[in-house]
Amino acid sequence: MKKFTIVASMVALIGGLLTASNATGAVLRVPHSTWPVCTSADQDFCVESVSVSLNAGTPVKLTWVASGTATPVTPVAAPAVADTKTVAPAAADTKTAAPAPAAPVIPTPVAQTEVSARAGISGRWTSEDWAAKGLAVYGYDGLFINAKTANDMVNWVMIEVLPVKVAPTTNVTAMAGQVGAPIYQAPLDKDIYVSVKVRVGAFKNGVSVSVANDVSVDATVDAARNTLLIEGAPVSSSLQASTKQCDGETGKASANTVQMLVVIVPSNDDTSGFGIDGVSGDMSVASNGACTLGTPVWVEAEKKLTWTVKAPHFAADGVTENVGFYKAKIPAADAKLLWGLQNANDAATALEVTVTTDAAGTNVGQKNITVKNNVIYINVTGFKYSSPKLTVMMNKNYKPGAATAAPAKAVAPKTVKVITCVKGKTVKKVSTAACPAGYKKK
After folding, report:
1. Of 147, 227, 306, 406, which has the maximum CB count within 10 A?
2. 3-state SS record for 215-273
3. What is the Cα–Cα distance from 419 to 431, expressed in whole angstroms?
4. SS3 for 333?
5. pTM
6. Torsion angle in degrees (nearest 10) through CA of 334, 335, 338, 339
7. Most confident residue range from 9-13, 14-18, 166-170
8. Which residue, among 229, 221, 200, 227, has the nearest Cα to 35 in the 3D structure?
9. What's the rounded Cα separation, in Å, for the pair 284 and 145?
10. How far apart are CA 96 and CA 153, in angstroms?
11. Based on C-alpha coordinates, what's the Rg of the chain?
């Protein structure tokens, strides 16, 4: 049985080393450079569509606008030509007219951003209603989807959602950076929910690892190509210039931000794939520990599944302690394969979740296991960084419910022998072996 891989360095600000395992399948050729927007029906490895919703509102379908191009606006209809004919004045209406509807309130931006020099921003996904829909409150003008491999050594698909700004006169698009430190990504709005659909050729997802919240990765497979629909919400996290900032209990982040980054490891790649024989490919894990976020590791000898993440102990102010979370999704079929858990609804008592850190005590605020639609969800919050490890294994005290007892075998009714007894003219039929006193058997 194969072990899960460990995630490599996903982007420059997310360090780490690659330890890959093999998975049965063909070698993939996933493009390492940023994928373009889909422009033809036969195109692969491209971004097909993007939409966002704010505060669980109606999704806003975004339009791709190339850098240097103004955002299209809906033309305003020309006013009707005035009729010069004399018209009799209308009779005065004595009824009180209904007040005109109030103009929509556009939120005032609460944060400012600077233009970053980050290269490769070729345009933006935006809407003519971006500001009117309340999407400009954090000072950026749209999103850029950086879809590519996680690094040049692997075929893992990375979806990075970046805020972008547009120059007022030239419409040139650039990443929105933080004020005073534009090399670091400006924070996304935590209240948006982002949906990204990409075409991935022959790529088949094995596991997803995310710096995001409420992430789902849904695959669609047809004869022509595979597509992935990646959905989720940004999450608060720390950024660091070096992985050394994530060692020990004194490390300090270079900056804090709100980001969304999803890495999907394939199940059908011989060089850097992921998998345990027989798993579904729908397992996922998410956290805000972005320093060396890794895939799950299966320890066969101990029947335990572990995740390790890292982040600086302190936020950029050097005082506030970073608090972490894990969210894991394990399909019931995978739990049965790994631990022999026959009934996923027993997960809350059958599985034991522990968190260990470098610091004394784990400070875990909540550990919760729920089951919905035959999927086990594990949610752990409140632990401290730098390097916590989450372990899931069977609870030694777990006793499965007693098997339903087999129904008792049907017992054939005993044959009852009836005899006829007489006494004078009186006749009786009895089921006893002998006739009552005074009666004779006939």
Report:
1. 147
2. EEEEEEECCCCEEEEEEEECEEEEECCCHHHHCCCCCECCEEEEEEEEEEEECCCCCCC
3. 6
4. helix
5. 0.77
6. -160
7. 166-170
8. 200
9. 21
10. 73
11. 33
Would you say residue 441 lies in a domain?
A: no
Domain assignment of residue 188, yes or no: yes
For residue 243, what are the domain limits? Answer: 46-71+106-394
Q: What is the DSSP string of 47-88?
A: EEEEEEEETT---EE-EEEETTSPPP-PPPPPPPPPP-S--P
DSSP, collapsed to helix, strand or coil, labels residue 302 as helix
Main-chain phi, psi angles of 414, to 5 degrees: -70, 145
Residue 198 within a domain: yes
Of 358 and 361, the one with more pLDDT? 358
Q: How far apart are CA 442 and CA 431, in angstroms?
A: 14
Element (H, E) at 305: strand 304-308
pLDDT digits (tens, 9 = 90+) for 367-386: 899 999 999 999 998 888 88
Average pLDDT, the chain: 81
**Up-side HSE of residue 392: CA atoms within 13 Å toward CB?**
30
More confident: 105 or 318: 318
Tokens of 160: 């990075």
Mean pLDDT of 115-130: 91
What size, in residues, is the chain?
Answer: 442
Alpha carbon dihedral 147, 152, 156, 159, in 10-degree steps, equals -20
Residue 407 lies in a domain: no
Which residue carries 């940004």 as its tokens?
234
* Number of structural domains in the chain: 1
Q: Which residues of 309-326 are buried (b: 16+ CB within 10 A; e: fewer)?
A: bbbbbbbbeeeeebbbbb
Q: State the Cα–Cα distance between residues 134 and 256, nearest whole angstrom.
A: 23
DSSP secondary structure letters along 137-157? TTS--EEEEEEEESSTT---E
